[in-house]
Amino acid sequence: MDYWNTKQSELQKGDIHANINSTFNEKYPERQDAVWYKSSSGYMARYPGKNNMEEQVMFDSNGKIKGTGIQVENSTLPGKSSAYLKKNYTDKTYDRVYQLNSPTGEKSYQVWVDGKWIRFDSNGDYVDPK
Q1: Is the pTM of this model over 0.70?
Q2: Mean per-residue pLDDT of the chain
Q3: Coil, helix or strand for 129?
Q4: What CA–CA distance (Å, rounded) separates 85 from 65?
Q5: Per-residue confidence band for 1, with pLDDT thresholds at 50, 70 and 90
Q6: DSSP class of 22
Q7: What number is the average pLDDT over the span 29-53?
C-alpha cells in the first residue's frame, strides 16, 4: 500500500475509470467532495473527515480497494515510532500523521517529515522503503 512515496498527479472526476468511480460511490456515497490522484501504484481519493482530519481510499487500477487512511493526531503513534522520530529527526516537526488500514485489517502509520514519508508498522517499528 505504498502510495505515498510515488509521484501523484491530480485528476478531474471525469478522468477516473468507471469501475473505480463506481466502487467509490457505492462504498462512500456521501463523499462527493473527494479530490482524486493517480500514481504508478493506482488511484487515491482524498476527502475531508472528522475534526478537519483528512481521509483517503486507495485503489488499484482495476477498482479494487487496496486500503484506507485517516489523518490522526501525533499522539496516536505507537511509542516506538515517536522515539524513532525524536532520535532521527531531532529538529524536525511533523503534523501529517496517517493511520493506514489494509483490506485485511493490517494497520500501519506514515508520517510526513523532512520532505518525505516515513512508515511504521502497527507496532511502531520503522519500515525501510527498500
Answers
A1: yes
A2: 89
A3: coil
A4: 30
A5: very low
A6: H
A7: 89
